[in-house]
Amino acid sequence: MRFRPAAFFAVVLLAAGVVAGCGSGISLDEAIEGPVWRLEQLGGETVTPSGDPQRDAQLQFDRRNNRLSGSGGCNRVTGTFERSGSALKMSQLASTRMACVDPARSASETQFFAALQATASYRMQGPSRLSLLDASGRTVATLSSASTR
């Protein structure tokens, strides 16, 4: 077998590209399904936990039936989702209609539900932080898995 410099360098460049892609921080195989994701930031503003994890805004994705469920802090939310690579679309969102006693919590919930509808993709920041991005790539919400709080 004869050494071919051009073929060798082509393979090296291809391997370097693959390795560089691995360092991008985005793995298209990172599953978001399973853990409970608690809202940490909404529109760039930090969300303060209520002290009662059952009353915090949260989301959970179920891979078996492509359904999502969660809470906005006052009301329950449910819907469907489609995930392909880093693309994420949530649809058929529905929520209960209970009144929030706290007006700030009600406003935050409305903004959270709007962020879910605007989500076009996601980015993982380590194994326990999930950023939801709109169509322009702007972060609309950041959540952390329940095990990190």
List the helices and strands and how they pair.
Layout: H1 5-22, E1 36-42, E2 45-46, E3 58-62, E4 67-71, E5 76-84, E6 87-95, H2 103-118, E7 121-124, E8 129-133, E9 139-145
Antiparallel strand pairs: 1-2, 1-3, 1-9, 3-4, 4-5, 5-6, 7-8, 8-9
Descriptive report:
- The chain has 149 residues and is an alpha+beta fold.
- It has a single domain, classed as Lipocalin (Beta Barrel), CATH 2.40.128.270.
- It contains two helices and nine strands, in the order H-E-E-E-E-E-E-H-E-E-E.
- The protein has helices spanning 5-22, 103-118, and strands spanning 36-42, 45-46, 58-62, 67-71, 76-84, 87-95, 121-124, 129-133, 139-145.
- Strands 1, 2, 3, 4, 5, 6, 7, 8 and 9 form a nine-stranded antiparallel sheet that branches.
- The termini are far apart.
- Mean pLDDT is 83; it is low at 10-28.
The ordered string of helix (H) and strand (E) elements is HEEEEEEHEEE
Q: State the end-to-end CA separation.
A: 58 Å
User: Architecture, CATH level 2?
Assistant: Beta Barrel
- Write down the domain tally: 1
Low-confidence spans:
10-28
> What's the main sheet like?
9 strands, antiparallel
**What is the residue-mean pLDDT, rounded to a whole number?**
83
- State the helical fraction: 10-25%
Structural class designation: alpha+beta
- Predict the CATH topology: Lipocalin
Number of helices: 2
Task: Give keywords.
2 helices, 23% helix, alpha+beta, 9-stranded antiparallel β-sheet
In short:
By secondary structure, the protein is an alpha+beta fold. It has helices at residues 5-22, 103-118; strands at residues 36-42, 45-46, 58-62, 67-71, 76-84, 87-95, 121-124, 129-133, 139-145. Helices cover 23% and strands 36% of the residues.
